[in-house]
Amino acid sequence: MAEREYHDVFEERRAASRFGRERESDLAAIWLNPHEELVASVHDESLGGISLVVSDCSRLPVGCTVGLAYAGAFLQATVKHVRPTDDGLYVVGFETADLSV
Asked: What is the predicted pLDDT for the residue at 16?
């Protein structure tokens, strides 16, 4: 399989594995440092990541790594993308690694 075809199939499967959430039905805690946490609404989950809705993304630049607590797990998460919403909030996409194992 050509590299381009593999990439397309991977992206299609990744997108199909997203599980959307109603805003504020699920919450996660983002640890920016050991003494500072931010509560965020879960936008969606995927097999390798999570997107959270925050009111201020200034401390979450693409590439930064934070700790996340969600659904009984502690995750190491790296910011992959940030996009504004129509209502003045931000959706921050994280790639995650489970640290509770």
From this structure: 46
